[in-house]
Amino acid sequence: MEKILHAVDTALPASLERLFAFLRIPSISAQPAHAGDCRKAAEWARETLAGMGFEARLSETRGHPGVIAHNFSAGPDAPHVLFYGHYDVQPADPLELWNSDPFDPQLVEGPRGPRIVARGAVDDKGQVVSFLEAVRAHLAVNGKLPVRLTVLLEGEEENGSPSLAELLTNERDNLRADFVLVADTNMWNFETPAITASLRGLAAIDVRLHGPSRDLHSGLFGGIALNPIFALTHILGQLKDDQGRIQLPGFYDNIAPVSAAQEAAWAGLGFDVNAFLGDVGLHQPAGEADQIPLAQLWARPTAELNGIYGGYQGDGSKTVIPAHATAKLTFRLVAGQDPVKVLDAFERFVTDRLPKDARAEFTRGGAAPGYSLDPNAPFLKAAQAALQAEYGIQPALIGSGASIPVVEAFKTILGLDTLLAGFGLDDDCIHSPNEKFELACFHRGTRAHARLLAAFAG
To answer: Which residues contact 269 (CB under 8 A, 6 or more apart)?
Structure first.
């Protein structure tokens, strides 16, 4: 291992040259004017992988092409890892807020030492190249890899991945592996690596409550006619109790409780809930009263009202009883919950409480289940050991309150679990002007990837 790590260290200047060449390509997937640049970035990745000895090709879709590459030099019995990343980037606007050209990468001094500044520096070109440089070091020292490796690079992640399902379906047989490794996430902090072991899913729904056949004069009909806004808010006000628990029947069925060991591990992360909420002008956690703050954020489901409207919305006063009222809701779900069953339960919850003369109309949106890694998965144990070896500290096993659609796609289409272990930081300004990747994070991330590849081999 030491020879491989030495190869990573001595190749750092060349690694940066390769990364900077990649960063100079303005592969903005959301803007049709940059379609040619997206293809150029895909070709750059294909040629880079081919130059490292991979069988590499583009996989065409209705949108931007994917890049698929294989290196099976480890032999047929070695574990098989599928690495995922993306070569597309966000638009750089507003350009006037950048301190330099977003597609002319710079190495700039910062509080933690030099940092790479460019669009895509950390999301995700820098993290992709960090992995590829670890692969390059293994090949340079040993002439082969410790695992069978397939690389999949997508070109539309920053535009909602509209062709990802097509790509995975078309290439299902070529993407068989034991698990997926994704480096598009963050460390817990500058000193502490992190593995994202759980994600919340999502179920979205709109409800429109209908009352009178038209808007009514509130003087002529007030007091005798049903007001849909009152009716809807009365029903939605019953969705949570005073302890923050959601009142849909069966909502918490099949959810594993947060273990005492997990609570203790999260307590050791030093999460400052007062600072976290204080940054947005709040002070008091509003979730389930019997759950610690990080459990509320990562491990427990939610019901959120995202919007509510009805009646007159203009300036001044208009004395009407509206014909209908509408609310938009999303449920953040955890492993064990079925999004369809949750939406079914919500529809019954509303329908059972409708006053006479009211009817409800529902429109369902996106639905994706929550995700949780098996804490005893061998590749997870291997990753924990590899990261601890590099950083000298046990990696934080964290959750994400949000959803990552690609993880769901890998599970539903390919049947694969995903290990999320990236090396960005919360202050890297992803999607914002002056996006950066700390040079130390790039370098140590490359060393960590080298250790991960060895650890996955067993």
So the answer is: 188, 192, 294, 396, 398
Q: Could you report the per-residue pLDDT of 136-177, keeping only the tens digit for each?
A: 999 999 999 999 999 999 999 999 999 999 999 999 999 999
Q: Which CATH number fits domain 2-199+371-456: 3.30.70.20, 3.40.630.10, 3.30.420.40, 3.30.420.270?
A: 3.40.630.10
What would the pLDDT profile of 23-38 be if each residue is shown by its tens digit? 999 999 999 999 999 9
Q: CA 289, CA 144: separation in Å to the nearest integer?
A: 53
Q: Per-domain residue ranges for the chain?
A: 2-199+371-456, 201-255+301-368
Domain 201-255+301-368 sits in CATH at 3.30.70.360
Q: Among candidates 307, 304, 285, which has minimal Cα distance to 296?
A: 285
* Angle subtended by helix axes 125-142 and 12-23, to nearest 10: 140
3-state secondary structure the chain: CHHHHHHHHHCHHHHHHHHHHHHCCCCECCCHHHHHHHHHHHHHHHHHHHHCCCEEEEECCCCCCEEEEEECCCCCCCCEEEEEEECCECCCCCHHHCCCCCCCCEEEEECCEEEEECCCCCCCHHHHHHHHHHHHHHHHHHCCCCCEEEEEEECCHHHCCCCHHHHHHHCHHHHCCCEEEECCCECCCCCCCEEEEEECEEEEEEEEEECCCCCEECCCCCCCCCCHHHHHHHHHCCCECCCCCECCCCCCCCCCCCCHHHHHHHHCCCCCHHHHHHCCCCCCCCCCCCCCHHHHHHCCCEEEEEEEEECCCCCCCCCEECCEEEEEEEEEECCCCCHHHHHHHHHHHHHCCCCCCCEEEEEEEEEECCEECCCCCHHHHHHHHHHHHHHCCCCEEEEECCCCHHHHHHHHHHCCCEEECCCECCCCCCCCCCCEEEHHHHHHHHHHHHHHHHHHCC
> What is the residue whose two structure tokens read 């009716």?
231
pTM of the model: 0.90
The two domains 2-199+371-456 and 201-255+301-368 share their CATH topology (first three levels equal)? no
